[in-house]
């Protein structure tokens, strides 16, 4: 029988193998921050942190942006969880969390039903897109995908559907703030994450205000 600590070590090694080389902002540094936040939120909400932390490490190992064959990636995670002695119930819950938690899944106006552990991991992932880290990740991701920093001719798109969200044509890094990042705080599930988000969101609004003022030479 593996201990939870042994299972967690195996999960970290699996994540390292799948995303250790990522350079789009979904690497181990992101997974570790999400795991830390998931643990903190779980503890504050009085929930066992084990499944949230496990799901945090695995949540981007099946992302369609990162893995061409999503079905194969999901099958690999399921096989891995079985090998590491996760129970059938745990496997089902972890797979449900990581397949349903992404922001893209909210773009048709629906909110997939997530377990409490899932809501916590989703909050942790979204908090890592906010604040100083969120700004750095947006610039890093946008640069990697050849986005412009900003273009006054291109206004942010009010309503994005899933296909548009995946099509980066004419996206700018500053538009991404209105199209996604400023929406995230209002979508957070837990009171604990909502409280953490306040300062992060304020900081980002300040950043965008200053950015636009400096762009015009006004500040
Ligand atoms: P999700 O897993 O919810 O779909 P993403 O993987 O799209 O989220 O986003 C991961 C990180 O990359 C976030 O910090 C996000 O702000 C950033 N990002 C995603 N799309 C863009 C974009 N078009 N321009 C700039 N940053 C982006
Ligand atoms: Ni993520």
UniProtKB/TrEMBL annotation:
Record key words, sorted: Hydrolase
Any one Gene Ontology MF annotation carried by this entry is: hydrolase activity
Q: Has keyword Hydrolase?
A: yes
Do you know which Pfam families this protein is assigned to?
HD
Which InterPro entries would you find in this protein's record? HD/PDEase_dom, HD_domain
Keyword Membrane annotated: no
Domain HD/PDEase, chain residue ranges per copy? 23-139
Recorded hits in CDD domains, A to Z, give:
HDc (cd00077)
Protein name per its UniProtKB record: Hydrolase
Classification lineage: Bacteria, Bacillati, Bacillota, Bacilli, Lactobacillales
């Amino acid at each position: 029988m593996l201990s939870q600590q042994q299972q967690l070590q195996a999960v970290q090694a699996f994540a390292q193998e799948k995303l250790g080389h990522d350079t789009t902002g979904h690497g181990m540094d992101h997974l570790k921050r999400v795991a830390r936040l998931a643990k903190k939120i779980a503890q504050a909400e009085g929930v066992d942190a084990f499944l949230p932390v496990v799901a945090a490490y695995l949540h981007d190992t099946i992302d369609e942006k990162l893995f061409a064959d999503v079905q194969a990636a999901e099958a690999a995670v399921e096989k891995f969880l079985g090998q590491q002695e996760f129970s059938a119930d745990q496997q089902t819950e972890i797979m449900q969390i990581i397949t349903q938690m992404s922001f893209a899944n909210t773009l048709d106006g629906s909110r997939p039903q997530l377990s409490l552990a899932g809501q916590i991991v989703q909050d942790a992932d979204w908090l890592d897109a906010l604040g100083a880290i969120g700004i750095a990740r947006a610039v890093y991701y946008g640069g990697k995908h050849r986005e412009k920093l900003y273009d006054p001719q291109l206004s942010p798109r009010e309503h994005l559907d899933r296909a548009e969200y995946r099509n980066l044509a004419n996206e700018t890094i500053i538009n991404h703030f209105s199209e996604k990042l400023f929406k995230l705080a209002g979508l957070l599930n837990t009171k604990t994450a909502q409280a953490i988000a306040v300062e992060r969101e304020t900081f980002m609004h300040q950043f965008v205000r200053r950015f636009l003022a400096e762009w015009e030479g006004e500040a």
